[in-house]
Amino acid sequence: MAFRRYRALPQGEVTVEEFRAWLGQFDADGDGRISRDELQRALRSLNLWFAWWKARAGVRAADANRDGAVAGDDEVATLFAFAQRHLNVKIAELGASYY
Ligand SMILES: [Ca+2]
């Protein structure tokens, strides 16, 4: 995939809905799941360092059913929490239930 332009995350605080919408554009094969490769592309678009490592860590943290991808509301919510802790994404309205 060459120089496709991705929508950036909104500036300032990000809600889980915004995060999910942003993440969805990296679902290259459209299967509704974010694989490690797809997450890596997402993190690269944020100009994050160590995108490969962070994608691996993010999927590992969020992939509750161990199918190798982030899928479903619960796993996206966990990834969202991971992004807040490790990727310096500012998160709005993060409920205690995500922990
Ligand atoms: Ca996918």
UniProtKB/TrEMBL annotation:
Keyword Calcium listed: yes
Family annotation (Gene3D superfamilies): EF-hand
Protein name: EF-hand domain-containing protein
InterPro entries reported in the protein's UniProt record: Centrin_CML-like (IPR050145), EF-hand-dom_pair (IPR011992), EF_Hand_1_Ca_BS (IPR018247), EF_hand_dom (IPR002048)
Domain EF-hand stretches: 14-49
The keyword Calcium appears for this protein: yes
Single Gene Ontology MF annotation: calcium ion binding
Organism (species): Oryza barthii
Residues passing through the membrane, by range: none
Pfam families cross-referenced by the UniProt entry: EF-hand_5
Keyword list, A-Z: Calcium, Repeat
